[in-house]
């Protein structure tokens, strides 16, 4: 008798094959059989009228801190993700020399908007090497599996100290030591290496990420370590600015070719250089045709900042008069902001000067919109704050101010940061059509105060499937076997006998995203945005039901996964 049989569902097996009615039997954490009229199991789930998919594999998350203190890795776990790869963007917490822990915390705080007090209370730094960090991660059971990349910033600071923070070039000795550390970490179980080359990644003090100006020689030297052991992949984040996209892509390509290992890079439609994504897509497609494994990872909707009084950012968070009341409880802040004198002062002040958010000055009212319930991720241009202000003969700042106070300060303004240059999702639609691209960039576990993109997996199905009509089998393949293959996880991503029993049972008709809300459950009472979804009847990890109807069952079968090849 099987441990579990999921009976009578529409199986979407992750391969891209058409859906079919079948039962799925599970035994000892593995899929035992997929077929019709299977024998009864010790436990059964009636999946009549439901779709049954593999668990989703998300290759771009930031649970490096949360995985140390938390067994429940929401938001990913509540959106059908059963395996997450963390350590992206070159930031993380190992290796670390005693006495330099705060440097890594400050960087994670600035780059990924995870408050330093939360990290300081949640992390005990019982490790120095990456292997020791993995050992700590292995001790805690979780509701999903996790995989870790070695972050370049941590490695660079470990080897070069203050010289890394000053953005100095590495010497030959530095490179040799970084190569050794990264290879050692991957041998210990890391899935590869990540780095960042974007000016957007800064500490709250404004210091750039230590990896920003790493030379090709340094990157190639580290890549040699992966070539030497024959495993792991590389993850790159870049602005592709200097001196032009093709030159920067050429550097990455040479590093990848030298390593012989696959690589991924983040690709979005920028609003200031709206066509660059097409050039980078063409370059990556050409590389693929020529046998160089470089794949772009793109977001399925605008990467959107939720600005509000509940979160960590709003359009006036740098204004002196707002900063003077920012510490107040929400109701008191709202009352103060409704005072005509306070309103006049805030609206008259420079709202950028005192901000610790480096992107604030780049956010325009032309791409800020009211964020309703249900949430709207594809708002028309006519609903923007700029358009509304023009219709009403008011300044955009006044309209934004009033939006913040709506619903007693519980409302959000949705600001499309990337992927919405022409007020459509045409860029994401085009990227979905290319076999070399990867759906991702959810940043699960990060940007806890103003971005809620851990819901990407649910959005892919609810929007691109239910509203735009892309076949469900392709959307499931994109988030299961495709991402598992990209990460180097051959034992999951398909509903196939012998593979890991990571499974979702989804009520397709009911599937929908809910409005994000704020939780105060991080260490020290820290806050984080959380967005739930309706429609997940069950999520199963290694054969154990971890969530029913979106609620945790208490089962914690998830583990640290170590790279095998």
From TrEMBL:
Q: Which CDD domains match?
A: D-aminoacylase
Pfam families linked: Amidohydro_3
Q: Which residues form the Amidohydrolase domain?
A: 43-547
Enumerate the PANTHER family for this protein.
COLLAPSIN RESPONSE MEDIATOR PROTEIN (PTHR11647:SF1), HYDRANTOINASE/DIHYDROPYRIMIDINASE FAMILY MEMBER (PTHR11647)
Q: What is this protein called?
A: Amidohydrolase family protein
Organism, by scientific name, is: Paracraurococcus lichenis
| Organism ancestry | Bacteria, Pseudomonadati, Pseudomonadota, Alphaproteobacteria, Acetobacterales
């Amino acid at each position: 008798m099987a441990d579990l049989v999921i009976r009578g569902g529409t199986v979407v097996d992750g391969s891209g094959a058409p859906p079919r009615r079948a039962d799925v039997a599970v035994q000892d954490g593995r899929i035992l059989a997929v077929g019709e009229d299977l024998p009864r199991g010790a436990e059964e789930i009636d999946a009549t009228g439901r779709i049954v998919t593999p668990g989703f594999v998300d290759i771009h998350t930031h649970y490096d801190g949360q995985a140390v203190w938390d067994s429940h890795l929401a938001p990913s776990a509540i959106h059908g993700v059963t395996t997450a790869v963390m350590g992206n963007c070159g930031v993380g917490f190992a290796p670390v020399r005693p006495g330099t822990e705060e440097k890594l915390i400050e960087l994670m705080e600035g780059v990924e908007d995870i408050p330093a007090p939360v990290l300081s209370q949640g992390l005990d730094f019982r490790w120095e090497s990456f292997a020791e960090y993995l050992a700590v991660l292995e001790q805690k059971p979780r509701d999903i599996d996790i995989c870790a990349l070695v972050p370049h910033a941590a490695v660079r600071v470990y080897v070069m100290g203050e010289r890394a923070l000053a953005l100095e070039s590495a010497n030959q000795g530095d490179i040799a030591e970084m190569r050794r550390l990264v290879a050692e970490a991957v041998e210990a179980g890391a899935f590869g290496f990540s780095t960042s080359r974007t000016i957007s990644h800064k500490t709250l003090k404004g210091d750039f990420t230590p990896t920003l100006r790493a030379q090709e020689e340094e990157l190639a030297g580290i890549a040699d370590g992966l070539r030497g052991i024959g495993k792991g992949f590389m993850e790159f984040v870049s602005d592709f600015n200097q001196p032009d996209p093709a030159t920067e892509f050429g550097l990455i390509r040479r590093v990848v070719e030298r390593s012989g290992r696959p690589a991924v890079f983040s690709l979005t439609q920028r609003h200031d250089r709206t066509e660059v994504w097409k050039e980078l897509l063409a370059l990556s497609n050409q590389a693929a045709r020529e046998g160089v494994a470089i794949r772009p990872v793109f977001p399925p909707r605008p990467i959107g900042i939720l600005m509000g009084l509940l979160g960590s950012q709003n359009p006036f968070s740098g204004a002196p008069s707002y900063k003077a009341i920012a510490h107040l409880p929400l109701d008191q802040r709202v009352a103060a902001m409704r005072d005509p004198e306070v309103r006049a002062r805030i609206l008259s002040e420079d709202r950028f000067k005192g901000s610790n958010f480096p992107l604030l000055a780049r956010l325009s009212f032309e791409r800020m919109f009211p964020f309703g319930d249900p949430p709207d991720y594809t708002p028309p241009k006519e609903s923007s704050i700029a358009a509304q202000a023009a219709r009403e003969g008011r300044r955009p700042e006044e309209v934004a101010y009033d939006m913040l106070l709506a619903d007693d300060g519980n409302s959000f303004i949705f600001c499309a940061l990337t992927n919405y240059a022409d007020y459509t999702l045409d860029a994401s639609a085009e990227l979905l059509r290319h076999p070399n691209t990867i759906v991702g960039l959810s940043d699960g576990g990060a940007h806890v105060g103003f971005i809620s993109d851990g819901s990407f997996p649910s959005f892919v199905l609810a929007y691109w499937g239910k509203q735009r009509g892309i076949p469900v089998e392709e959307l499931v393949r994109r988030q299961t076997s495709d991402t598992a293959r990209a990460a180097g996880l051959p034992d999951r991503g398909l509903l196939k006998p012998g593979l890991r029993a990571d499974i979702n049972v989804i009520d397709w008709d009911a599937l929908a995203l809910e409005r994000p809300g704020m939780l105060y459950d991080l260490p020290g009472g820290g806050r984080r945005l959380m967005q739930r979804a309706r429609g997940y009847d069950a999520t199963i990890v290694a054969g154990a039901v971890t969530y029913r109807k979106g609620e945790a069952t208490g089962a914690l079968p998830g583990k640290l996964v170590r790279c095998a090849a």
